[in-house]
Amino acid sequence: MEMEISLRQALENNEFILHYQPKLNIKTSAVYGMEALIRWQPEDSKLIYPGQFIELAEETGLIIPMGEWVLREACKQCKMWHDAGYPLTVSVNLSAQQFQKHDLTELIAKIIVETGLNPDALELELTESTVMKEPKQAAYMLQQLKELGVSISIDDFGTGFSSLSYLNQFPIDTLKIDRSFINDAHENEANQAIAAAIISLAHGLGLGVVAEGVENEEQLRFLKLKQCDAAQGYFVGKPMGEELILDYIKKNT
Ligand code: G
Ligand code: G
Ligand code: NA
Ligand code: MN
């Protein structure tokens, strides 16, 4: 309860910030996009990570106004990068509750108009469990979102329990291989096989594929060999605040 009140106040007092984690195109070695990750920065205290508040935000419905703030802030930031000459994409994580709200498409359409961001530059990250909750409704929702011109990626791919048949029924653009398959891929042959299989699955379906949790050169080399499209992880870049990220962009794009 106390935590719920603090969260509400944090939203009112603008205590949330976004960090951005880069995505690298493996073939061209260019950074092409950023994933927005929310953090809570209470006044005079340590940064709090989403693992500690997203669940509560979902349970209390606060995720709706919080998620709207994230979308608007990420789109604004991305437009600024574009205006500065860096045509990056921005990815926003959506929780199941946000995805189930019938006015999500309208909200995103409004934010795109408001910020002037090219919808091509916005990617929405959804987990398998989010899209599989109500598959029929999800298919309709994804279609509407696609019509806006935004792209859709499936986050933490490989950790859900859903059938694969949804992949060709939904208008999805990209699979993100969960970092648990990447982190120890160089010493774990089973995970190596899974990562390689997800890459061919994605390509077989005409989808892009991003590996998460790339922490060293060896993992990146493996992914390149398997023709994975893109990589994200500490080896490419940690999530960074607004100022660090601009320096990073200037040096790496
Ligand atoms: O870096 P990290 O601790 O930020 O992320 C932890 C988890 O929190 C990840 O699963 C990530 O998807 C989730 N997360 C980060 N930012 C957001 C956000 O803006 N909205 C939602 N729904 N989840 C987020
Ligand atoms: O579920 P989602 O993919 O949105 O989660 C992103 C989370 O993964 C964040 O908590 C982020 O800080 C973390 N993360 C990003 N890159 C790496 C990495 O290379 N290694 C590890 N262990 N965690 C990472
Ligand atoms: Na994500
Ligand atoms: Mn993920």
From TrEMBL:
Residues 1-253 form the EAL domain. It comes from the Bacteria. The keyword NADP does not apply. The keyword Acyltransferase does not apply. Keywords: Coiled coil. This is EAL domain-containing protein. The chain holds residues 456 to 708 of 709 of the full protein.
